[in-house]
Design goal:
Alpha-Beta Plaits, four-stranded antiparallel sheet, Ribosomal Protein S5, domain 2, globular, 12 strands, 287 residues, alpha+beta, eight-stranded mixed sheet
Length: 287
């Protein structure tokens, strides 16, 4: 039996670090949005015992270092079964980009195995498994427009973001998530207004969402191309331009396709990884 899963990327419309917990993890307040840039993950039962992972991008590991592999292990531990399946990841989401590409793959593995093995776990149980693997995995299982709190395990649905076009541009420079959090821990951060942002989300106020959006990592992460990318996005009429996650990807939100396409064309002249996407109302989804 073979199951194929669509694994959407995400952007952060809002990201604030509330504090550091006793266990070393950080408590976050995030508004997250799924977009239609997605990997395709296939899970298939096989006769051999073990987890056999392949990926279309040879730069990514295919062993325990891959978060999708870890997700398969945690699923089997939770279900009390011995693994015997193959996983293939067809990569479309750039990695190390702040778009949760790895977490999306992990979410797809968990969702796909639940369906293939007919374990019948609730969404809450799937998210519990996902949280053991990574803080963004529960969101990538549920997807859509969500308020994510604590270490990623507390999700609250928000009104869907109105129809728009989202241009993503990933600079060549990479960002270490661990270093980003360390820098944030040692910086007095300006706090974006989470309550006004949440109010705008609850009302479905597109202009308010764009006005109160924010990402505290932009205060501590230096991405040289970010200034130029944002300048182009604003000149093309973006309602919001901001970095996603701990970066380095910058996104611009546009109300119409013409402006988004114009921005895409200008960014392609200076950046290889540029995409036009749309918001979607789902996370990992069986095709």
């Amino acid at each position: 039996m073979k199951i194929t899963v669509n694994a959407p990327a995400k952007i952060n419309l809002f990201l604030d670090i509330i504090g550091r917990l006793d266990n070393g993890y950080h408590s976050l307040f995030m508004v997250m949005q799924s977009v239609d840039l997605a990997d395709t993950v296939t899970v298939e039962a096989c006769e051999e015992k073990g987890i056999f992972l392949t990926c279309s991008d040879g730069r990514l590991p295919t062993d325990q270092k891959n978060i999708a592999y870890k997700a398969a292990q945690k699923f089997c531990e939770y279900a009390g079964i011995e693994p015997s399946f193959r996983i293939h990841i067809e990569k479309n989401i750039p990695f190390a980009a702040g778009l949760a590409g790895g977490s999306a793959d992990a979410a797809a593995v968990i969702t796909g195995l639940d369906s293939m093995l007919d374990t019948g776990f609730t969404r809450r149980q799937l998210c519990e498994i996902g949280l053991k693997v990574g803080s963004d995995v529960p969101f990538c299982i549920v997807g859509g427009t969500q308020l994510s709190q604590s270490t990623g395990g507390v999700l609250s649905p928000l009104k869907e973001l109105e129809a728009c076009f989202i241009v993503l541009a990933k600079p060549e420079v990479g960002v270490s998530t661990a270093e980003a959090y360390a820098a944030a821990d040692n910086t007095h951060l300006y706090r974006p207004d989470c309550m006004r942002m949440l109010d705008a989300c609850e009302k479905g106020d597109f202009e308010g969402i764009c006005r109160y959006a924010g990402n505290v990592f932009e205060q501590v992460i230096e991405v040289p191309e970010r200034v130029e990318f944002k300048k182009i996005m604003r000149e093309c009429g973006a309602s919001l331009c901001q970095m996603s996650g701990s970066g380095p990807t910058v996104f611009g939100i546009f109300k119409n396709a013409v402006d988004a396409e114009k921005c895409f064309g200008k960014l392609k002249e200076i950046c290889d990884d540029v995409y036009i996407t749309k918001p979607v109302n789902h996370g990992a989804k069986i095709i």
